[in-house]
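Hi R.,

Here's the chain you asked about this morning:
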Amino acid sequence: MSAVEILVVEDSPTQAELLRHLLEAHGYRVNICPNGVEALSSARRHRPDLVLSDVLMPVMDGYTMCRAFKDDEDLKGIPVLILTTLADPQDVILGIEAGVDHYLTKPYREEALLSRVEAVLAAPLESGEAQEEFRVVFSGQPRIVKASRQRIMNLLLSTYENAVQHNRELISTQNELRALNDRLEQLVTERTAALAGEIAERTKAEEEVKAMTQHLWQAAKLATMGELAASIAHELNNPLATVTLRVELLKTQSPENDPRRLSLEIVEKEVDRMAALVANLLQFSRRNQLQISTIDVRIELDKTLELIQYHLRKLNITVLKDFIPDAATIHADR
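And here is the predicted structure, written out as tokens:
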């Protein structure tokens, strides 16, 4: 038994290929035409078992094509299944007037399309059934449409099946929305309970933000000072290195009992102190982030006093250190 051949009339290459892939995967042979004119020509050359057509197409739309099929004695027995959005009830009237046999509304599920195709092929049209005139009122205006009772029944069943399917999807969507709404209410309840505890923390958080802002301003100032300190330290390093080398050279050339050697040792000590100050400046300039650690306050104070000792002497300021023997360590930024 040869495979059933379906003529797909679709101007969108993407949609046409999707339909081809779906139908061929289920054993159907598929021929594709981009408009109604080419579909008529193709059907006259090789008669398909079913025409599956879009409505809006260039050259010739789906309704005009269907009317041409039904006016052709050799083609009128081929069932035409129209894929449409059915956005307007007038589409049904247009379909009846054009001789459309079945509808399937977009968007559709693949299972629904395959089921409709199987149903259409399982119930072939009775080509000899007489056409009857029906008087219908649409939008307040009477209209006369001509169709067979079978076609009217097929269209009504198609419309009903589409309505049932959309109703199922609507119920499923409503159930999902209901579940989401229940979940939202639960989240709101939980959040409301959490807010009761957060209100007490809000003031504290705001104070922390203010403190952090102040800290950031201070950090920005320190960063600027650090850049300046780095520049100064680098400028001092080279001459200090030169002085150190000269002093060491002079010491090697001076006898142990030379009275000038004491002066050289004093100079060397001061140079070492300056080198330590430069090292402290470089360490300060490299603080890009906090370095929290346990420190001895006495040691840090000694380093700080050493750093500003020159200025203290110049201002004739004397600092008296009176540290307790067992001073506690603290956690701080080094």
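One quick note: The two ends are 90 Å apart (CA to CA).

Cheers,
M.
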